From TrEMBL:
The lineage of its organism: Bacteria, Bacillati, Actinomycetota, Actinomycetes, Kitasatosporales. This is SDR family oxidoreductase. Belongs to the short-chain dehydrogenases/reductases (SDR) family. Keywords: Oxidoreductase. SUPFAM superfamilies: NAD(P)-binding Rossmann-fold domains. Pfam families: adh_short (PF00106).
Length: 248
């Protein structure tokens, strides 16, 4: 698994933020990358690796997209990062539509892609990583149903691993839960909202979060995870500016 050349990696939600960094890191590591997003992202040519990035413009939540792209590209690795940015407001100021936005986006994407991965199925030795959120552990009182949706992504990933084992499929599924980071649009809006709620400046709020998680750190962590022996991969990880930490 240390050699990623010839092992196509699909990154869903690759146009910006952590997804962009993950796509770039896999290309630098030599993997052919398929960057899936609804809007086109710009990628620099890999400086050291032999991999390249092919952009696929598609709505990852469309029920037909996952099967089509899996059949077309036959990936060895799939990284799901896509999701909606939640509206940051107290519970009583949400509508059902704003409260449930991440269920209709993040959970829907995870369901469609993991279902198709099991049905296809991916080739033996394939790796699947679902990027959830640290909010799945700590909650997120200003983002409606976001934390519950992110926790459900983790449950679905565990269900997929169980079904793969029951079917004798050599596919490894894992969930990664990134901590809030101000380098993404979602993280910036959340930091502003929670700092105001706590009567702090945004800088004061972020200082207590520890080292900043960047797209580059996220990308390198994902490459290391996919390169690990399957027997060493945990069902879940917390991702911070210090890297990955296995969850119990």
């Amino acid at each position: 698994m240390s050699d990623l050349s010839g092992r196509t990696t699909i990154v869903v939600g690759a146009s910006r933020g952590l997804g962009h960094g993950i796509a770039a890191a896999f290309a630098e590591a030599g993997a052919p990358v398929v960057a899936v997003s609804r809007t086109a992202g710009e990628f620099a040519a890999p400086a050291n690796g032999e991999g390249g990035i092919r952009v696929e413009l598609a709505d990852a939540g469309d029920a037909s997209v996952a099967g089509r792209l899996l059949d077309l590209h036959e990936p060895a690795n799939v990284i799901l990062v896509a999701g909606a940015n939640p509206h940051m407001r107290p519970l009583q100021h949400h509508t059902w539509e704003s409260f449930s936005a991440n269920w209709e986006s993040d959970v829907r994407i995870t369901f469609h892609w993991l279902r198709e991965i099991l049905l296809t199925p991916l080739r033996p030795g394939a790796r699947v990583v679902v990027v959830s959120s640290g909010a799945a552990l700590a909650g997120s009182p200003l983002s409606g149903g976001y934390a519950g949706a992110k926790a459900t992504q983790r449950f679905i990933t565990g269900y997929a691993q169980d079904e793969a084992q029951r079917a004798g499929l050599d596919i490894t599924f894992s969930t990664v839960l990134p901590r809030m980071t101000p380098v993404t649009e979602l993280g910036r809006s959340a930091a502003r909202a929670y700092a105001a709620r706590n009567g702090q400046s945004q800088e004061e709020y972020l200082q207590q979060m520890g080292p900043v998680l960047t797209p580059e750190i996220a990308g390198n962590a994902m490459v290391d995870l996919v390169r690990s022996q399957a027997t060493e991969v945990a069902p879940g990880y917390l991702l911070t500016g210090a890297g990955l930490k296995k969850l119990g």
